[in-house]
Amino acid sequence: MSNSATAGAAGGARSAPGTAATNADRGELGKFDALASRFWDPHGEFKPLHILNPVRAAFVAQRTRLAGMRVLDVGCGGGLLCEALARAGAHVTGIDLAPGMIEVARLHAAEQGLEITYENQAAEQLAAGGASFDVVTCMEMLEHVPDPARMVQTLGSLARPGGAVFVSTINRNLKSFLLAIVAAEYVLNLIPRGTHEYERLIRPSQLGRWARGAGLSLRELAGLEYNPLSSTCKLTHDPSVNYLAHLERAGQSLS
């Protein structure tokens, strides 16, 4: 099996639907909040995410400067990516609407002696307050929000001119359905059943269109391949299942 076992176990900024400020889903929030206490167990439900994290952190670090930069991780979950970026020298803020995840993230960062700001806050609320960051990341979350196009718009507004935005999600096609849902959730039990809904998966062409509408240009698209037999993950040129996107807001580039 390749890519998709990683995506759904990540925490994300999700909240009650129907509010003006928050592009989120209470059902999705509940899924991940219930698992918060087991987030840092590398052999539990989040094992694929622990294997994926070094690859996605390296993808970010190799494409933008992190030392001394203000970085926002939207849908930070228990803080796995936040901690990796903080260790690379970034000043990191993580936001998530699952309160259990934020509490776990704060406790783990304190245990590790890392200075990371965690807030139980919606991205839309942060953007409305005029916040701006050098780098914005949003991993394994777009496929869980009611309006992913609006979320991409929000991510773009949170990046300063010239800032970088990094997104990971799952493609929508027969291969991704078979691997990301059937195999990962029902055959191999790599992630909890019901984590993903096929209709919510996102084609790269959709992401590119939403990005352009948000004033972002697509710099690079890369596939993520996860091998459950060897417990390894690597970047590929095939974005047919899991994929990473490097986007950039117009202005003075960081790279």
Summarize the model shown.
This protein has helices at residues 26-33, 47-61, 80-87, 99-112, 123-128, 148-158, 174-187, 204-213, and strands at residues 70-74, 91-95, 117-119, 133-139, 159-170, 216-227, 232-236, 242-249.
What is the fold's blueprint, element by element?
Layout: H1 26-33, H2 47-61, E1 70-74, H3 80-87, E2 91-95, H4 99-112, E3 117-119, H5 123-128, E4 133-139, H6 148-158, E5 159-170, H7 174-187, H8 204-213, E6 216-227, E7 232-236, E8 242-249
Parallel strand pairs: 1-2, 1-4, 2-3, 4-5
Antiparallel strand pairs: 5-8, 6-7, 6-8
Parts with pLDDT < 50 across at least 5 consecutive residues:
1-20
Cα separation of the termini:
34 Å
Q: Considering DSSP H and I runs of 4 or more, what fraction of the residues is helical?
A: 25-40%
Question: Could you give the count of β-strands?
Answer: 8
Q: Quote the CATH topology.
A: Rossmann fold
The oligomeric state of the chains shown is single chain
SSE sequence, one letter per element: HHEHEHEHEHEHHEEE
- Our count of domains comes out at 1
According to CATH, what is the class?
Answer: Alpha Beta
Number of helices: 8
Strand order of the largest sheet: 3-2-1-4-5-8-6-7
Gross CATH architecture:
3-Layer(aba) Sandwich
The average pLDDT is 88
Q: Hey, roughly how much beta strand do the residues contain?
A: 15-25%
The gyration radius over C-alpha positions equals 16 Å
Strand count, sense and barrel status of the largest sheet are: 8 strands, mixed
Content-based structural category: alpha/beta
Shape: globular
Determine the CATH superfamily: Vaccinia Virus protein VP39
